Amino acid sequence: MPQLPPLTAIRAFEAAARHENFSRAAEELGMTQAGVSYQMKLLEERLGAPLFVRKGRGMELTDLGRRIAPRVSQAFATLGEAFAIARTESDTVLSITAPRTFATNWLAGRLGGFHALRPDLAVRLEVSDTLVDLNASEFDVAIRGAAAPTPGLIGHFLMRMPVTPLASPDFLRRHPLNDPADLLEVPRLSPDDDWWDLWFGSLDHNNRAQPGLRLESQVLEGHAAIAGHGVAILSPPMFQSALDAGLLVQPFAHMATYRHAFWLVYAEHKRNLPKVRALRDWLLAEVKRAAGDDPFGILKPLPPA
Question: What's the pTM value of the predicted model, to 2 decimals?
């Protein structure tokens, strides 16, 4: 790429050439007339040729200045158009990244409600468990499972992660469960998942390794449980529709709470963006609405770490 003169000097030249007046250029740029004259001196020294000559009490462009002035103005116009496009896209597109289970089982089915409130916004949802750098990426907000908000980001508590065994009615007819210890004798999904340790430990029981399907996400475990392949250890709020439809049943009332909760987070420099504020307000209200009388205790804040 060719080495350019300092941008401040180029900008001063473009304004001075357009007005053919250093004073009016200075007013437009918020500079002094002496400041514009100094920038012109720097630019002319860099080029090795004059761009303005004195005429009476004013200045006029040299032949070289007149040849390059339209191209410089066009270059700034092109830059202005490029940043206008960027601003428009930033104002009208809301980019969200969220972990698989929350995005698939909770958020995606509710985003239509947000779009109804803000039809001017195009919402882009990336389903990924990868943590992106919100201070440097194109994403506006993220949903994250963590014990506390990420340092350096604005964070809003959304909900706890209660966990408990869930199974299909057909599976429970074939494998009656009367006591938590019975779970050790029936097919369980991802039996080495640490959520099983958490749930059994909260009842002073020990989990026991056993053969079984090992799946990589709650989404897959939930589908396998609905299909009757075993008991899954899941977070009920993520499977509320399956529970309401009777596709999954909670055989034991006891629930344990995972150390992480779901948080809405975003970079400090996006705090005041209208689209971010709109999502924040809608999401916090939607979590409370969906929780109803909060049978799973998801709205109770986590204790201090």
Answer: 0.71
